[in-house]
Amino acid sequence: MTCTQYLVHPADSGGWTLDLQTRIAGPYATRNLALQVALAEAALLRAKNNRVCIVVNDARGEVTSSRCMCARFDRYLHMHGH
Description:
Largest sheet: 5 strands, mixed
Number of helices: 2
Number of domains: 1
Mean pLDDT: 84
Helix content: 25-40%
């Protein structure tokens, strides 16, 4: 199974935008807020047993960080009561 990629990147108009599986969201005032929304969206996808990876790009389009929300991550959350 392949991962769905959720992309967090600076918006052309300012702020931060999310490219989700079926829509564009934002812009959000800060990168942290955009990441919180991306994580919430990823949790919804993971609840349906789908794989998702959150990727953060800088203004040049280069990847600055990424996180795969895989089954291993789900086991960690379950073990810690989240």
